[in-house]
Amino acid sequence: MTNKNQVLQLFTPIYDKFMLSTYKEDTQVSPKIFTQIDDKTSEYKVDDLGGLGKWEAADEGSGGQYEDVVLGYPTTLTQSKSRKRFSVSFEAVDQDEYALLNKVSDAKNMGRGARALVEETDAAHIYGGFSTAGSDGQYWFDTDHPKNREETGITYDNLLSGPFSHDNLELAEKEIADNFKGPDGIMIEVSGNPVLLHPPALKGAVARVLSERAGERPGTPNRDINIYSGEYSPVMWKYLSAAAGGSDTAWYIIFPELDYLLSVWSARPHYRSWIEEDEELYVFSGRMLRASGPTNWRFGFGSTGL
Asked: Does residue 83 sit in helix, strand or coil?
């Protein structure tokens, strides 16, 4: 004989399976941009520490050359809970042996809702970077980020200019070369291709600029070799679009390998279940506990596209 607790134990893993089938983390854009971290603390603190600067010449038998670590600007990501629930009455189960199975579509819809929340939240950190103050008090994309907490008179610029184009990408590379430095002033080197992040409206422009031949069009004489072919990993994110709250013109050059964009999880999407005896309901609650956001302006460079 199946009792109430066995009913819960049977269907919770089933609903987990169907919820995760529509959540599909591997097809989301966010994990391609944000480093995923599992951490049980309610506040995840990141200290922005630079290196010890360049080595200095030293005379034989001499001392010195000691130096303190350069301090940047710390960031705290505070996790918050998100959830969605559905219930099944005792009567529905008593009168229909398929009542619980019929809730599979609800579980799938909950997975879609969890996916949408994660993607929307993380995309907002990117397109909101033009108007949101970061850890150093400047907008995440700005013209005057202080070098560190002590040398505030030296500033760096990660706000790009103009619509996305071959010429503006060339200007962007010059700006990155001049400003992509750590708190100690040393140039930042990355080994992999930067991500060229863009909304759907720029799909054609990005494809043409990054193709093997610059500006190539069928039936035209544009056959110049493109210096940008293979230099960037283009990623289109529909949650950056104007329809999703972002912009159809903004574009970004992101450096995921630096781990300056974080998604911190105490609990990934999953189900909890229990019985409400008074209301005579089987309750299934999807929940997750996370925080996300930039921890350093050096995660990337961005242009409003205007």
From this structure: strand
pLDDT per position as a tens digit, 147-200: 998 889 999 999 999 999 989 999 999 999 999 999 888 899 998 899 999 999
Q: Could you name the CATH architecture of 4-50+73-303? A: Alpha-Beta Complex (3.90)
Give residue 123's Cα distance to chain centre. Answer: 6
- In the numeric block, which tokens belong to residue 257? 């390998």
How many Cβ atoms are within 10 Å of 285's Cβ, its own excluded? 15
Question: What's the pLDDT score for residue 1?
Answer: 41
The SS3 assignment for 203 reads: helix
Tokens of 270: 């999953």
Domain map of the chain by residue range? 4-50+73-303
Amino acid identity, position 56: E
Give the Cα separation of 141 and 125 in Å (integer): 11
Residue 155, Cα to own-chain centre: how many angstroms?
A: 25
Count H helices and E strands in the chain, helices first: 6, 12
What Å distances lie between residue 223 and 199, 206, 214, 234, CA to CA?
27, 17, 7, 21
User: Nearest-5° angle of CA 239, CA 244, CA 245?
Assistant: 115
Q: How far is CA 185 from CA 71, 154, 181, in A?
A: 12, 9, 5
Residue closest to 206 by CA, chosen among 240, 159, 257: 240
